[in-house]
Design brief:
This protein is α/β, with parallel strands linked by helices. The protein contains 20 helices and 27 strands. The strands form 7 sheets. Strands 1, 4, 5, 6, 8, 9, 10, 11 and 12 form a 9-stranded mixed beta sheet that branches. It has a 7-stranded mixed beta sheet with strand order 15-23-22-21-18-16-17, with helices on both faces. Strands 24-27-26 form a 3-stranded antiparallel beta sheet, with no helix packed on it. The longest helix has 21 residues, at about 510-530. The radius of gyration is 28 Å and the shape is globular. The protein binds pyridoxal-5'-phosphate. Pyridoxal-5'-phosphate binds next to helix 10. Pyridoxal-5'-phosphate (PLP) binds near residues 255, 256, 310, 338 and 416.
């Protein structure tokens, strides 16, 4: 797995004259986006976690970009005016800790090239193409084994050039060390990294292979002519090639699984791996740390995963966190289908519990809860953060601290709230919280997890075991003792998708995601107002993640018809029934853009108007 990329971006770009007088060449725009930003998006989409940019000329442009993408780290080559690309790479070296992709900053390229390098079995691979006739070719020659023999811009110096250098390579940490050692001995500040690779290969200090894609769509942009050709000929080819891999877009407005990005879908296409390998354990560990980080301090909280849907992990949590032997008693709050489900789980485990039932569309009465806590009968509270049935958000910032005040363990189903809104488990005083891979985090279904306070986990250690697979403490212990392997077969590919979804969440940030959801919600609310449709839950109690809408009064209305009209336009909506109240539900979850919600409201409007 390649987690880092380095972009060499210190150069002056002097051959572009006026065009780069005020900016580095990576900031030339094509189709309204800086070429380096386009490159960064591609790197992120293939799972690169960190992008190190070696800067020099007008470094502030890259520093601004790093403010926009928190996965970017800039490193300044202060001698950029006098030095070449190898010096910039040498400056970046201290931050590179494993195999990485090395790129030049002035490239436009088909993303498939990154996929090819990542999937090449060999560890040092230079990407190359057939003839470009660009006028500024760097020719490569190879031996019978496709190992690099020479690199030159001068065709007469190369017998039988095999291919042209693209400017994207996959390099190991060891090879980087060799390159830097060579450079330090050679001490030529004008040497380019590709010439160092040539020397390393010739001296057999590393095996450097050249991988050729004959008709690869790419261009370097070194002068105005190249820029024009890039805009008029090459960029359209790249765009077309990449669009051929787009997955048909279906926007899920149902309350999970949520719409995923194509990069999350494609993250599942990976080399087969036995989940007992160290590399897989590292992946799981990384996921647990990052998922915890979104809501808590990893020193105090930890994340335990199971292969299951959300209900599975609710079952693990409820059944593992209350001690039946000690006759502990659980209080369950039921103000919707999911709260009722928590009570059902307790019932199925023959637990000692009471239920407080409350309206699924009106705010909970905190006094009723406090009176129950006060009785001293209860050891634990189980409650849903966001009731997906109606979109009602329970005020856990009041309820959980209150429960703790009376000594209850707090068990929260946050499945449809987690990663959709900022939350701080310590401040909320939550001991155990459940979530899944397929809701706001935006990955594939199949992974349920509990984020638990470590000290609370220790208290459940000797509780009576009620089940085998879904035992929270056993799973936790196995994680810790076995380098974060799951006890039983995990959904391997779903974990790679989860990793990608976490990367994308970190880049967007949960705060910004929350704002995006609220924006979609506002668009929906104003359309509903125009159509005189009412929401089931009062605005002040709505989460904005799910909107339960009362159907129009017209007897021509049918959910099935509305569903079909929406589905034919690429939107999936969901019914909702509360006792005898019919609703239809619209979720804001996952990869949905405000413009798409806008489009949906037009479809809704057209349908509603057709009922008159
Ligand atoms: C989605 C959801 C669940 C879990 O449902 P599954 O179908 O088992 O994944 C549990 N609780 C809430 C609040 C949910 O929104």
């Amino acid at each position: 797995m390649i987690k880092q990329a380095v972009i060499l971006a210190a150069g002056l770009g002097s051959r572009l004259g006026e065009l780069t007088k005020n900016m580095p060449k990576g900031f030339l725009q094509i189709d309204g986006v800086a070429i380096v930003e386009n490159s960064i998006k591609k790197l992120i989409s293939v799972g690169v976690e960190e992008i190190i940019i070696g800067t020099g000329y007008k470094a502030e442009f890259y520093e601004n970009l790093a403010n926009k993408y928190n996965c970017i780290k800039t490193v300044y080559n202060k001698d950029y005016e006098k030095t070449s690309s190898m010096v910039t790479l040498n400056v970046c070296k201290q931050f590179i800790n494993n195999d990485f992709l090395l790129l030049e900053s002035d490239l436009i390229y088909d993303k498939i090239g990154l996929f090819v390098l990542i999937n090449d079995e060999r560890s040092n691979v230079i990407l190359s193409s057939g003839k470009t006739y660009s006028g500024d070719e760097v020719y490569l020659s190879v031996n019978n084994n496709f190992e690099l023999v020479s690199v030159s811009k001068d065709k007469t110096k190369i017998q039988n050039p095999f291919a042209e250098l693209v400017g994207i390579s996959k390099i190991t940490k060891n090879t980087l060390n060799e390159m830097c050692n060579f450079y330090e001995k050679f001490a030529d500040i004008k040497i380019d990294y590709e010439n160092v690779l040539e020397q390393i290969s010739r001296q057999n200090l590393a095996d450097i292979f050249v991988r050729k894609i004959e008709y690869y769509a790419w261009s370097e942009i070194d002068n105005e002519t190249m820029l024009q050709t890039a805009i008029n000929e090459i960029y359209p080819r790249i765009k077309e090639n990449e669009s051929l891999l787009n997955v048909r877009r279906e926007i899920l407005l149902n309350p999970g699984p949520a719409t995923t990005t194509d990069s999350v879908k494609y993250a599942q296409v990976i080399a087969d791996i036995c989940p007992r390998e160290r590399e897989f354990g590292d992946l799981v560990k990384w996921c647990t740390d990052e998922l915890t980080n979104f809501v808590a301090d990893n020193n105090k909280y930890t994340c335990i995963m199971f292969a299951c849907s959300g209900t599975g992990v609710d079952e693990a949590m409820i059944s593992s966190c209350v001690n039946t032997n000690a006759n502990q008693k659980l209080l369950v709050i039921d103000n919707g289908a999911y709260g009722a489900r928590l009570a059902n789980i307790a019932k199925n485990f023959n637990m000692n519990f009471d239920v407080i039932k409350s309206s699924s569309y009106e705010a909970l009465d905190i006094n009723v809860l406090e009176n129950a806590f006060k009785t001293g009968k209860y050891n634990a509270l189980a409650i849903v953060y966001h009731e997906t049935t109606t979109g009602l958000l329970n005020p856990l910032e009041i309820i959980c601290p209150l429960a703790k005040k009376y000594g209850l363990i707090t068990i929260v189903d946050a499945i449809s709230a987690y990663a959709g809104m900022p939350m701080d488990l310590e401040k909320l005083q939550i001991d155990f919280m459940s979530a899944t891979s397929n809701k706001h985090i935006g990955a594939m279904a199949g992974i349920g997890f509990v984020i638990a306070k470590k000290s609370a986990l220790e208290t459940i250690k000797n509780y009576q075991r009620k089940n085998y697979y879904f035992d929270l403490y056993e799973q936790y212990k196995y994680f810790v003792d076995n380098n974060y392997q799951l006890r039983f077969t995990p959904p391997v590919q779903s974990f790679y998708a989860l990793r990608q979804a976490i990367l994308e969440t970190k880049i967007e940030t949960i705060q910004k995601r929350f704002e995006r959801m609220q924006k979609c919600h506002q668009i929906l609310l104003s359309a509903l107002e125009n159509l005189a449709l009412e929401c089931l839950v009062k605005k002040e109690n709505q989460s904005g993640f799910i909107t339960a809408i009362l159907p129009p009064k017209s007897n021509k209305y049918s959910f099935e018809n509305l569903h079909e009209v929406a589905k034919n336009n690429g939107f999936t909506i969901y019914p909702g029934k509360l006792g005898n109240i019919d609703t239809f539900r619209i979720a804001n979850m996952g990869d949905i853009k405000p413009s798409e919600m806008q489009k949906f409201t037009l479809i809704l409007e057209k349908y509603i108007n057709s009922l008159n």
